[in-house]
Amino acid sequence: MKRVGRDGVITVKDGKTLNDELEVIEGMKFDRGYISPYFINTSKGAKVEYQDALVLFSIQKISNVQSIIPALELANSQRRPLVIVAEDVDGEALSTMVLNRLKVGLQVVAVKAPAFGDNRKNTIHDMAIATGGVVFGDEGNLLKLEDTRGTC
């Protein structure tokens, strides 16, 4: 209990062995990964790893490339990686991200948001709070991308 502190979360699960195990995770862990294997950027294992990345959260599906161009341009101008966490990313938006990753070398990855329904929306909000980000697609949210400072 001391290791996680007042604001930490403790999860207890049934194990398959007779021994107790303790795993402490710094930050946040969720059960989803990159949407396309073209985002892989490590030689050891099929992983995507970035430091000091900008994070864009969306409670909506992203299919239109126009909706993410400002985020791609901001990440490129700041020379920082961009992590997009959304209900889903597909179509023109996904293909543009993959092309920018492969041809231009833009550090970008799309991740499908964890959970389902209202639980997904709440989880995205929790992730935004943990990173200092803003959730796009939220009712009444008229912020500009440049006004956000979410990082991971």
UniProtKB/TrEMBL annotation:
Keywords: Chaperone. InterPro entries: Cpn60/GroEL, GroEL-like_apical_dom_sf, TCP-1-like_intermed_sf. It comes from Ornithodoros erraticus (European soft tick). This is Heat shock protein 60. Transmembrane segments: none annotated. Signal peptide: none annotated. The keyword GTP-binding does not apply. One of its GO terms (molecular function) is ATP-dependent protein folding chaperone. PANTHER family: 60 KDA HEAT SHOCK PROTEIN, MITOCHONDRIAL. GO terms for biological process: protein refolding. Belongs to the chaperonin (HSP60) family.
